[in-house]
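cron nightly-structures :: item 1 of 1
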Amino acid sequence: MGHRICNRHHHDPDNLSGDENKRCVGKSNEPGFMKNNHLLILSLSLVYLFLIGPLVIIVFSAFNDSEFLDFPPQTYSLRWFNSIFESEMFISAFQNSLLLSFFGALGALLIGLPAAYSLSRTNSKWRQPALSLFLSPVIIPGVVLGFAVLKHIVIPLEIETWTGLAIAHALIMLPYIIRVIVSSLSNVPVEIEEAAVSLGSTRMHAFLVVVLPNIQSGILAACLLAFITSLNDVPVTIFLTGPGVTTLPIQMLSYVEYYFDPTVSAISVLLMFLTIILM
């Protein structure tokens, strides 16, 4: 009975009488209750250790002065950060990644913004199937998506490497663009837009003047999320890169096949900081 009373009044402890309050306090001090708390804390600690532990190892390894990956480092140095900026292959690959992410995000936004607007303003029975279709690149494994683009788009149409990469990256960005913008549009009442139209504005003008300013933050968040996803992509890109055209993640993957120094760890640290800055 005391347990039920505590559950019924846990949002309003002031309504408890003195005896009920004692029973609640006694319940929270029981050994089983404390044991469950300890198990919860232990589980959360293990989860955080599993997630953060590799990042800590990478960060410390990046400042290692040794010729090979070593943890914990014996001596610390910035030599591997200097080697990144002295390496033409990493600089070129990073420039390719930035250009590819930018143009991919631009293409995904040009398609995703009208699609998100249509999906948010329609009550058709095809709304949910269409939304699922646009979000499918998130569900499909990247290896499958990359191979499908290569086999069914790039090879049959004889598309250049850059164009194929841009198409593939626009596809993997599109779900993030649409999902975030649809959520932003759900917070913009349709009545505001209808009021602008009733006062003589066209649909396009009402969208540009009334709707678009209210979803600017959502568009920015969608583009940043898509940009970071594209910048770090490996499974889709690895099928579509060609001679002289590679991205930074693919170049890092190729580098660790032949070299065992902490250069890749240093690049990973810089990418972490870039992601933090963008977010």
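cron nightly-structures :: done
The chain is about 75% helix and 0% strand.
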